[in-house]
Amino acid sequence: MSNETKAPGQIVTILLGIVVLVVVGIWLLAKLATSGFDVNAEVMSKEAVAARLKPIGESVASDAPPGMRTGQQVYTGICISCHGAGLAGAPKFGDAGAWGPRVAQGWDTLVKHALEGFNAMPAKGGAADLTDDELKRAVAYMGNAAGGQFTEPPVGGAEAGAAADPAVVGKKVYASVCMACHDSGAAGAPKFGDKAAWAPRLAKGLDGLVASATKGLNAMPPKGGYSGSDAEFKAAVEYLTNAAK
C-alpha cells in the first residue's frame, strides 16, 4: 500500500532530476562552445566596435585643428590602418628592411606616391581632408622610424627664435613625443628624472644638448621625430633637463 502512494512522488523526483541534468548539460555545451572568447563590455562597446569598423583612410579626431596635425598624429589616426600591420603590401611601421628601398628613392618620390596614391594605397591614404603638409609630416615620421633622415614640415606654434615655456610647451611636447622612449628608458634613452643617467648629458649644457637632439643621436632620430618648431623642441629638452637637475 505504501509503495503505491510513494510511486507518484518518485516519478516527480526522477523527472526533476532529468530536467536538471538536461539544463546542466546544455550549460556545459554552451560553455565549451564559447571557451576562449573572453568578451567584456569595453571591447564590445559601440565606440570600440565603431573604431574597428572604421574605413581605411578615415581621419580620427585629434586635439590638433585641421592642418596642424603632426606626423605622429596623422600616422596614429590614419596611416596605422595599413602600415601598423603591413596590410595590402604597405611597408610596416619601423620595418627598416621594408622601408629601405623606399627611403632610398628619396623624399620627393615618397611624397609624390603618398599624395597621388601608389599600388593599393589611394591618394593621401584615402583621407581627403589631410593637407599636403600633414601628409608630408606623416611620410617623414614613418620614414624616420625606419632609418630615414627626413625633416617634417613645421607645425604652427611657437615661432622660430621665440622662447617657449618649458613647463607648459615643453611638457606638452614631451607628453606627445619624447615620453615614448624617455618614460621607460627604451633604446638607451636617459629615463625622465633619472639624475645619474642625465648627469653626463647635462655637462654639455642646454645648447649642446639641443644641438645633439636636433641632429639625432644614436637610436634617436632628428628632434626625436618631433615636427614642431625649434623653439618648441628646445622647450621639451629644457623640460627634460630641468626634471633631472
UniProtKB/TrEMBL annotation:
Keywords: Electron transport, Heme, Iron, Membrane, Metal-binding, Transmembrane, Transmembrane helix, Transport. Residues 66-146, 165-244 form the Cytochrome c domain. The chain crosses the membrane at residues 12-30. The keyword Transmembrane applies. PANTHER family: CYTOCHROME C5, PTHR40942. This is Cytochrome c. It comes from Vogesella alkaliphila. The lineage of its organism: Bacteria, Pseudomonadati, Pseudomonadota, Betaproteobacteria, Neisseriales.
